[in-house]
Amino acid sequence: MERNNEIVTFSDVLAPAVHDMKNSLSMLLDTLNDVVAELREQENSSYKRLSQIQYEAKRVNHNLIQLLTIYKVGKGMHSLSVSYHSVYEMLEEIMLVNQELLALKGIEIGISCPDDLFGFFDREMISGVLNNILNNAFRYANSKILLRGAPDDGFLVLSVEDDGMGYPESMLAKVEKPVDKVSFTSGSTGLGLYFSSLVAELHKNNGKTGMIVVENGGEYGGGCFSIRIP
Amino acid sequence: MPTDWGAKKYLIIDDFSAFRHSVKKMLQSFGAKDMDDSGDPEEAIRMLSKKNYDVILCDYNLGEDRRDGQQILEEAKFRSIIRPSTAYIMITAENTMTMVMSTLEYVPDGYLIKPFVPEVLRRRLETLIDRKKDIEEIESAIQKMEHLRAIAICDELSKKKPANILDFLQMKANICLMIGNYDDAQAVYERVLTLRNIPWARLGLGKVYFYRKQFIEARDTFEETIKESGTFMEAYDWLAKTMEELDEVQKAQDILSDAIQISPKAILRQKALADISYRNGDYDTAEKAYKKAVRLGKHSCFRSPTDHAGLAKVSIVKGLLTKALEITRDIRKEFGGAREADLLASVMDSFIHTAMSNEPEAAKSINDAARHYDAMSGKVSNDIALDLAKGFIASGNKEKGMSILEGLAKNHYEDEKMLRKVRHVLEETGTTDEGEKIIAAARQETVKLNNQGVALVEQGRLDEAIEFFTKASERLPDNVTVNANAARAIIIKMEKTGRDDRLLFRARKHLERLKALAPTDARYQKLLVKYAESSSKLTNRGQNGTE
In this predicted complex, what is the ipTM? Predict the structure, then answer.
């Protein structure tokens, strides 16, 4: 009875719906992982085609996670869970999650990071950002991707570099102040960058705020995405 | 050290059998052998109580109208059916729920976000199992009340494993709080805060202020914690507690209301909100919160008939007496004849019938309550005892009511909050004059009793003193001073005559009671340190003897 006066907004419906979709997707991905593994063992080459489905499903999964996070942060229902982590360990885990799929396209992934580098950050959130960027790099890299972790002037810098064509001019410009400038109507990459800069800006320390940098160059001369954590 | 997968026992809890199957396959590929799984939360809890698992992987969401992964964890920890060394990993579908969940003692050891690949599971478990081994060592020292040793282990591990230093610092500060070493706790929290603005360190600093009764500083610190980390729910609970100490009861209620907006599923917080709004006379808020607590209680180890009783009280105040009777019927039905629940239902019935001016029924109800009370030899929780006393006095059995209040006054003669509650009942029943005499006499008698025993200690008649306080503590099991004196006499005796396992055990029994009664009482905290010192000295002597 009390409910009559409440106005249900689109985003209120969106959150539980996204949650439900994520559950289905989780099941789908789990089963897919098993099937792909089985087919590989049997040396059945159709696993390669299934892997493409796997890739797309993962993309949808990343997008849903991002939507949910943006929604919750916006509603004040989520704040960072910052702790002290080994950077190398996190990068290694990200590599493990992605390398199988990357190998199918003949892309090699490597890490450049001192193994005694530690930092304060929200591991799940930062992993989410990097996984998402890697998922894009899968499309644009030719044969190499590098995950880099390094300290720089009071910041911890985590980068994904590839040997592809690099980011288009329009995106390089957009990233200067992404949260203000992201336009959801202009292209498909809007969500990922918006999410990345949101996560970056949630990381604050000593009056400094995190940021993302999108540029071309890096070790392999392709696209280079960095998140700088204070 | 490599993980010995084959030697460990695993339990996987998820309502999707395909998922359980796939996790089992992953574990198997690492070398795991002993694996159980369940899709039903109730069955899972039964399994937990029967077998000691090393690793539990539990999905958070286990289906509509069933317990969730957090409630299983709470039940398991609350009933101590999992060991401190068990690794409990919560599996979630999203990455945003970590902080919203619960208080420190009911936080899972790790989170995994679905879906995950085998290598990630392997790594996370390896790290976690290694970490749990260290934590187990510390926790078992705490359980044995060897707090000083626990702190020493924390210091040692901080040096040995710098990667996990924050874990050990957090534990160390926590132990310092337990034994009342607020200076050291503060030093640790401040050290962490110079590294980084970590919410638990800020919260810890607030706790230090709170325990030192610097409530203004505590308030500011908790407020700052919330400002910086709005979903760190424990900070709201502490801020509300602080506001109550500052007599800002309405603010305390508002803070809990805010917190409940963010984490509506936390039953203990719903209860706290209900109780404080009832006291504040905000019956609409109280009613809503009690209702939610009742609903959440269905699947929680924190389920209690006092929530239903709270709802019944609100209905009485609002004059909805038929509805109140329905609630007491529900209590009897839902708790299936549990004595304390039946007792509470009968007390509430007597209130309702009194409000209906139906004196014969009220008398009948209170007689039922008396029967239950006697059958339980008077061992009921304090809040229920207060209601019962009120019921007795209101329905004419003043003598029985007063004797219950006298018992409370004797056990808690130093606890101002409890005495305030006793005085409130006296006011409500118009027996203040008579009651105040009883409170004064109870205090006098208990002080005298303790002085007698302390005199025995001072004369060196330790055996007599121990017997004296043991007997006293049987009569007044909730009396803090009696228990503290009993433990102290025993420890002094052991310092003189050496190790005695039976005495050690008896001292610990009193300390454990004190821990439940007054964990922040300075006497208790000092005894903990003394106990830790003497028990380690005694152990050393024992070790030398065997050489």
Answer: 0.80
